[in-house]
Amino acid sequence: MQAGPDLIVIGGGSAGIACAARLAEAGKRVLLVEAGKSDKDIRSKVPALMSGIVHTPDFDWCYRAEPDPSVGGRPDVWPAGKRLGGGSAINGMMFIRGHSYDYDHWAELGATGWGYQGVLPYFRRMEHNERGQDAWRGQGGPIAVSEVRSRYPITDEWIDAAQQAGFPRSPDLNGEKAEGVDYIQLSQRGGLRCSTAAGYLKDKPANLEILLEAQVVRLEIDNGRAIGVTLRQGGQMRTVHAAEGVVLSAGALNTPRLLMLSGIGPAEDLTAHGIEVLHDLPGVGRNLQEHPACHLVNSVSAHTLNLDAKGLNGLKQVLALAVRRSGALTTGIGHAQAFVASREGLPAPNIQLAFSAFAFDVTEKGNLALRPESSVSTLIGLMRPGSRGRITLRGNDPDAPPVIEHQLLGDEDDVQQLIEGLQIARKIMAQPAIAPHVKGEVRPGEALDSPAALEPYVRAATIPMYHPVGTAKMGAADDPMAVVGPDLRLRGIKGLWVADASVMPTIPAGNTNATAIMIGEKASDLVLEGLREQGRTSEQLLAAAR
């Protein structure tokens, strides 16, 4: 770029890259600022290496939450991608859009235009679905959506067992109806991870400039308008101005932190840290939501990925990846999944069951290690938790990590729903299609055979699914806690949009990465329309002045 950019996008993650690339394709001169490094690292490309990059500081910001009394005072580590591609560069690659109910509920809460029919075109536009194209699915988009290439017969048996337990077979959980049981789809191309960096930047527009290892320390606001950013790169501070505006896509943990550091947020909190209040916006950092989950782990007699990771079998898997782009090294975090209701009268399934033909143990150091014997695991995730948390500042130091205050099981009914999900997972493992292979229950263990007995396990074993959302939520004009409107413009500041998981009013079902990318896609159109409206208004004012 010769002149300054039209637009600055802060954060080269799942939503940020999608938004920046689409804005550049539309002819805007875009500067994308990313605090992390390039995604060009084999550990990010090979799917099975994901367990070695999450909680690794070179790939992950490794934010530590405050001690959580609802899980025994444990201070969980909350990942945030530290590479170009953000969460899509380090996640488990499960591609799931969520239930139509979730988006229609957003619209009911004041996010007009974000109902299912309003977001469906963007889900279709972003993907290249291996299953083909129809009214719900897309082809030709930058994100490759592929079938699992690490196939194990016990996964087929689990799908059969789920049907025997009374849950219907879904033809496509990303299609017309996101209920029932199906194989998982993955954000992969040719057996390798397809992050937003790999997808949208494969043919990077010439008018898109990317700054890596460049940390934005504050937004520059002048007369109520965002005019640029101050950033640090290579130890040097500089201010970059944007001609038309700024899009903040730093993620649900960092977007509110950067807003507050820039003087936008709850006035009382900012004043306490000696930050000048430019705009009192009480919803910034509030409404934090996360999916809580626990695991059912079984030892089995069938062949699983645990056996393929050792010795000669491990060498065979390296060859399978190199020659056929298949095998254990292409695995995502799961192989099949079901969305089920654990009780009557719910508007949509409340439990996600994700089955993996492998299982981990937790080492003494707190790391994950594949179990030495053949095992399977079922993740039980609660899709619509009642608990809410918040993001606040540690001080006015831009290098200080955010304060994450959230009780995973702060709502008692969330505990009961997870127990119900565990009982459903056990019911599936007891069905004729899979039971002959089951040697025993490793966790929680057969001795915990009642809801009362399972509650201590749930409280001890529940972990975050790494899906934080909601900390700069969309809402109607009369919602005092809304940070952005349905057009994603920040309330009270001109020329500033937010486009990432922080704008979600409520957390959608399933893994949230596809939804974050969709937000980036839709945001690009909303920004362009906002700029067109701004141009029309300016023309009208000039005409009136004449």
Helices, strands, pairings?
Blueprint: E1 7-10, H1 14-25, E2 30-33, H2 42-45, E3 63-64, E4 77-78, H3 100-108, H4 116-126, E5 127-129, E6 143-147, H5 153-164, E7 180-183, E8 185-189, E9 192-193, H6 196-200, E10 208-211, E11 214-222, E12 225-233, E13 236-241, E14 245-248, H7 254-261, E15 264-265, H8 267-272, E16 279-280, E17 292-300, H9 305-308, H10 311-324, E18 336-340, E19 351-356, E20 360-362, E21 368-370, E22 375-382, E23 390-392, E24 403-405, H11 412-429, E25 438-443, H12 451-461, E26 463-464, E27 496-498, H13 513-545
Parallel strand pairs: 1-2, 1-14, 2-10, 5-6, 14-27, 15-16
Antiparallel strand pairs: 3-4, 6-8, 7-18, 8-9, 11-12, 12-13, 17-22, 17-25, 17-26, 18-19, 19-22, 20-21, 23-24
Question: What this model shows, in words?
Answer:
- The chain is globular.
- It has helices at 14-25, 42-45, 100-108, 116-126, 153-164, 196-200, 254-261, 267-272, 305-308, 311-324, 412-429, 451-461, 513-545; strands at 7-10, 30-33, 63-64, 77-78, 127-129, 143-147, 180-183, 185-189, 192-193, 208-211, 214-222, 225-233, 236-241, 245-248, 264-265, 279-280, 292-300, 336-340, 351-356, 360-362, 368-370, 375-382, 390-392, 403-405, 438-443, 463-464, 496-498.
- Strands 7, 17, 18, 19, 22, 25 and 26 form a seven-stranded antiparallel β-sheet that branches. Strands 10-2-1-14-27 form a five-stranded parallel β-sheet, covered by helices on one side.
- The mean pLDDT is 95.
- The chain has 546 residues and is an alpha+beta fold.
- Helix 1 links the parallel strand 1 (7-10) and strand 2.
- It contains 13 helices and 27 strands.
- The longest helix is centred in the C-terminal third of the chain and has 33 residues, at 513-545.
